[in-house]
Design goal:
alpha/beta, 11 helices, globular
Length: 384
């Protein structure tokens, strides 16, 4: 088959499957229901060592020659996670998916009831979608509709059920050959989180340095041109929140924050049995003054994070949300997460459909040549 025909076939498959939708990096985000097509243990938090602070779509055959400005060494060009290489993941916003108890809110019990719709475990069945993965939008305790502002990283949102319901979901999903990844929001917490409430009201709180405070407004905006520093109503000072005042950023230059978020990761991978994470807003993890995206400290942190989570579960899969142009992805390969959402290609798909032209082909070829084989997530649109 000629190269252009291959690209068209690839893109059409991507359009039809539309897996691994992207996330919360757009500052204008308002979450809407999403339901688009893409092993297990238990206990409580313990202490661990510190992290240094300083898919994929259609099955393909042979990796192409890469012309990216970096050397593909370790991990390999192809995803090291075998189940994700030919995987199709179905995104689930639990709140809107299926209500099992009539309270008007979707829940984990409802999702379990409908797992056979996603995959009934029979490879010859024509009664299910046959997806081998589900991605759950945030399911931890949160005061909001969307859940990207957690108040407890170790607790399932009571609207959705309990931690035991989540363990049962993992068991039932695995019975059917379905892997489960979940949104892990590392960049920030809710301003209602007990850590922030203590830090904001008591300058001597042990959580004080878990967030970023300034005695005066530093005077620069966030990367989207919006306000990034907010007045603390309790003390005469300001705090940093790249996504808004209700979402204060965690301070990853503090070893205690790293230790705590490492424990969050261990808890969900080992105690709760999840198979991986969609990592929200990762390009904003560590700021360097007015430089608030893609800093060297962020890259270093992600390299260390990879060593940590693969040490816990070698087959854990991670995909990162880096909202922006395709070129931004280059610096995140080859040794950080498994994959990243390709927002530029997604926009190109949609523009091609609107104009009735195959204008996506050039960018698809460029991405295919420059990014490691099968280590970027294609999609049409996202839940923002």
């Amino acid at each position: 088959m000629k190269p252009v025909k291959k690209l068209v076939r690839f893109a059409l498959s991507s359009l039809l499957i539309a897996i691994l939708l992207g996330g919360c990096g757009d500052p204008t985000a308002t979450v809407a229901p999403a339901a688009t097509p893409v092993s297990v243990q238990t206990t409580a938090p313990t202490t661990v060592t510190t992290i240094a602070a300083s898919t994929t779509v259609v099955a393909a055959t042979t990796p192409p020659t890469t012309t990216a400005p970096f050397a593909i060494t370790t991990p390999p060009p192809q995803s090291p996670v075998s189940w994700a290489r030919d995987g199709v993941c179905y995104e689930v916003f639990v709140r809107s998916f299926y209500d099992s108890n009539g309270d008007g809110k979707g829940d984990l019990a409802g999702l379990i009831t409908k797992l056979d719709y996603i995959n009934d475990g029979n490879p010859n069945s024509n009664k299910s979608l046959g997806a081998n993965c589900i991605w759950l939008m945030p399911i931890t305790a949160s005061p909001s509709y969307h859940g990207y502002d957690t108040t407890d990283f170790f607790k399932v949102n009571p609207d959705y059920g309990t931690n035991d319901d989540f363990k049962r979901l993992i068991q039932e999903a695995h019975k059917r050959g379905i892997y489960v990844i979940m949104d892990l929001v590392l960049n920030h917490t809710s301003n209602q989180h007990p850590w922030f409430k203590q830090a904001a009201t008591d300058p001597k709180s042990p959580y004080r340095d878990w967030y970023i405070f300034s005695p005066s407004d530093p005077g620069y905006n966030g990367p989207f041109g919006d306000k990034a520093w907010f007045k603390n109503p309790s003390v005469s000072e300001y705090y940093y929140g790249v996504f808004g005042g209700d979402l204060p950023d965690l301070n990853y230059r503090n070893p205690e924050v790293n230790k705590q978020m490492q424990e969050v990761t261990r808890f969900w991978l080992k105690d709760m049995g999840v198979d991986g994470f969609r990592l929200d807003a990762i390009k904003h993890l560590i700021e360097d003054g007015p430089k608030q995206e893609n800093t060297e400290a962020t890259h270093t942190w992600l390299r260390d994070f990879r060593k940590f989570y693969t040490g816990l579960k070698a087959e854990a899969y991670t995909i990162g949300e880096i909202f922006g142009a395709s070129a931004e992805l280059y610096s995140y390969f080859p040794d950080q997460l498994d994959a990243y959402f390709e927002f530029g290609l997604a926009n190109s798909f949609l523009n091609s459909a609107k104009r009735g032209q195959a204008s996506f082909v050039g960018l698809a070829q460029d991405v295919n040549n420059k990014l490691p084989f099968q280590r970027y997530g294609t999609f049409l649109t996202n839940h923002d």
